[in-house]
Amino acid sequence: MSSCTSAETLEKHVYVLRLGHRPHRDRRITTHVALVARAFGARGLYLADVTDENVKQSIAKVVSRWGGSYFKVVDGVSPFEIIRQFKKEKSCVVHLTMYGLPVDSVIRDIVEKCEEILVIVGAEKVDRVFYDLADYNVAIGNQPHSEVSALAIFLDRLWQGREMSLCFPDAKYYIVPSARGKVVKPFE
Ligand code: SAM
């Protein structure tokens, strides 16, 4: 396989806190939030307040085929307890919201100051308290779109594109990029 970025070389540890998940309605989009988190270099996803075995199993299947067993989905957590754990020196809580400050105006500060980052994304309306608890309220453009796109773009800005070549040494398969068709090879 060609040279790739291992998760260890992404020096910051990033976790995602998903608020407001409604198990039947949001299953697919929360799974996509977790997929983006894993693929773009985060270490895990916390699902606030509710449990959802379905989301956990979908991610476990992806991890078993494509690797990244360090990536954990932890459901049924208290968001306040998770945020409390990130309220220490060199740890930051970043809330993604269209009402926040433009990502390009704060990303340098975040890169310099935060060794560990909790990224909060919502589903529907996010409670005011999370805006107050966040160290940074960050907008990916000031228009409403999606938690999936917001997370992807935030992580890409954070890693400056290095996450694109992330590789997972415990994967069973890897993809050989090709102009047409699908080339998938097993690790020997
Ligand atoms: N108006 C809602 C709100 O309270 O932010 C938008 C909800 S949106 C469907 C779900 C989540 O996507 C938001 O909680 C936020 O995390 C993320 N999001 C949507 N647009 C965004 C943007 N422009 N910048 C950053 N995050 C955004």
Question: How does this structure look, described?
Answer:
The chain is of the alpha/beta class. It has one domain (5-186): 3-Layer(aba) Sandwich (Alpha/beta knot). It contains six helices and ten strands. The chain has helices spanning 27-39, 53-66, 79-85, 103-113, 128-133, 147-159, and strands at 5-6, 13-18, 44-48, 72-77, 91-102, 116-121, 136-139, 166-167, 173-175, 184-186. The strands form three sheets. A six-stranded parallel beta sheet has the order 4-3-2-6-5-7. A two-stranded parallel ribbon has the order 1-8. Helix 4 (103-113) links the parallel strand 5 (91-102) and strand 6 (116-121). The radius of gyration is 16 Å and the shape is globular. The structure holds S-adenosylmethionine (SAM). S-adenosylmethionine (SAM) is lined by residues 96-98, 121-123, 125-126, 139-141, 143-147, 150.
Helix percent band: 25-40%
CATH architecture: 3-Layer(aba) Sandwich
* CATH homologous superfamily heading: SPOUT methyltransferase, trefoil knot domain
In the CATH hierarchy, the third-tier topology is known as Alpha/beta knot
Distance between the termini: 11 Å
Please give the structural blueprint:
Elements (H helix, E strand, L loop, with lengths): L4 E2 L6 E6 L8 H13 L4 E5 L4 H14 L5 E6 L1 H7 L5 E12 H11 L2 E6 L6 H6 L2 E4 L7 H13 L6 E2 L5 E3 L8 E3 L2
Parallel strand pairs: 1-8, 2-3, 2-6, 3-4, 5-6, 5-7
Antiparallel strand pairs: 9-10
The structure holds S-adenosylmethionine.
